[in-house]
Amino acid sequence: MSAAMDTESTYSGYSHYSGHSKKAHRQGRDRHKSPRSKDGSRSEKSVTIQTPPAEPLLGNDASRTEEGQDDNWGETTTAITGTSEHSISQEDIARISKDLEDSVGLECKRYLGLTVAAVLGLLVFLTPIAFILLPQILWRDDLEPCGTVCEGLFISVAFKLLILLIGTWALFFRQPKADIPRVFVFRALLLVLIFLFVFSYWLFYGVRILDLKDTNYQGIVQYAVSLVDALLFIHYLAIVLLELRQLQPMFTVKVVRSTDGESRYYSLGHLSIQRAALVVLENYYKDFTVYNPALLTASKSRAAKHMAGLKVYNVDGPGNNASGQSRAMIAAAARRRDSSHNELYYEEADHERRVKKRRARLVVAVEEAFTHIKRLQAEEQQKAPGEMMDPREAAQAIFPSMARALQKYLRTTRQQQYHSMESILQHLSFCITNNMTPKAFLERYLNPGPTLQYDRDRWFSKQWTLVSEEAVTSGLQDGIVFVLKCLDFSLVVNVKKIPFIKLSEEFIDPKSHKFVLRLQSETSV
């Protein structure tokens, strides 16, 4: 128990050892260290060498390890040995199997919904045609002749079906933007309504027309026209429920990223929680700056370094008069922690100075490279058309002159994992092709952009999980909070209802603005 307490006290900054021998102390430390090395998460300063396969690497691992180490790394770091880089735990196996089951379920649900909608749509468009053709096929000789009005109804049915077909294609047959966890309630209700409506028409048609073999063909065609008219009204209802209802803003949502606290505000209408989550994610990819976990490692390493503090070793036992020295060292550690804000201030100031210095070098290097491009263009105009360079070759020619300055700046600002050499060359050739300035070329690298600006394989957020206490199919309400989780961070969404605004009118009499200027007789003019 004494050895265990000594081992745990290493992370709090102070350790008091008993009067055991060094050999017994070493054996006790090894005995309590071995179970801790099995699980790196139980140590606050563990070095993890296992990388999840779904997470992209963040540039140079060696540089990150050096940044995350402090002066006391050898004493406060738990080394993990005997761990394979491709090892996997039972939790990982369970998570992978759950992901596979969820993906299979989503695929089945998606294709099942598309199949049901396609079959129902085909039934809707074939039903009016079947109503008109079945009497001609079954009892053609007994039908009354179709007059001019009846023939005009054929044209009406044809054009109405064409309009319905175009409207249905524009409203329902769209490329899906996302897979939602639950069905869209209004869409499902519309499908059920259409099915019941068509079924009731078929039931009436079978009882009153097919069984009795009605000979009034004009009445049968008019019955088919009424069906098409009703389908058009249902289509209008679908436009109101699916498109127009959500246009009027009713709620304001605040979206906060859990890692760095970046937030945005959006206005939403009457939507369900799952559809509101889709709107939030669509705006996240274009409004939020790209998530950069490398910016968080510096603050974490700094906090861990200040928590380490100083360590006190009482190797001579409790009988020795070393309490005064121990108290002095404890007081020194407390003063060191009190001055941590000064260290943070100077560290941030030094970082800003290095960023400004390397930014200035980068701007100068890019301007010189673009000046060289203009010189090359002037020389190329004097050559034959077959000897002129294309923008790709020109970009490759001037890229080495700015590569070192750009690489140092990206490393200093921890953006190197988002910009490969191929992407930089493509952007440079694009700027050369469109005759853009050096400032336009540097805009992508000097200011972090939204997630959509970078390649898809550089994204850290591709699959999301919606966490909500309310049912995801229920509508938005005031005070609802739901969370969108991905692999490395989460988005916390807080819903507030837009308050009711009472606007009154106050009438101002135009005569109230008039005034009279009275001059005294003795006033000099």
Could you list some keywords that capture this structure?
525 residues, mainly alpha, elongated, disordered N terminus
Shape: elongated
Oligomer: single chain
* % residues in beta strands: 5-15%
Describe the strand arrangement of the main beta sheet, using strand numbers. Answer: 2-1-5-4-3
Portion of residues within helices: 55-70%
SS element count, helices: 15
Average the pLDDT over all residues and give the rounded result.
74
Overall number of strands? 5
Given helix and strand content, the structural type is mainly alpha
- Poorly predicted regions: 1-94
What's the gist of this structure?
Keywords: Cell membrane, Membrane, Transmembrane, Transmembrane helix. The chain has 525 residues and is mainly alpha-helical. 56% of the residues lie in helices and 6% in strands.
How are the SSEs placed, and which strands pair?
Elements: H1 2-9, H2 22-38, H3 61-68, H4 73-76, H5 90-138, H6 148-171, H7 185-210, H8 217-244, E1 251-257, E2 263-268, H9 273-287, H10 294-308, H11 323-338, H12 340-380, H13 391-412, H14 421-433, H15 438-446, E3 465-468, E4 481-485, E5 490-497
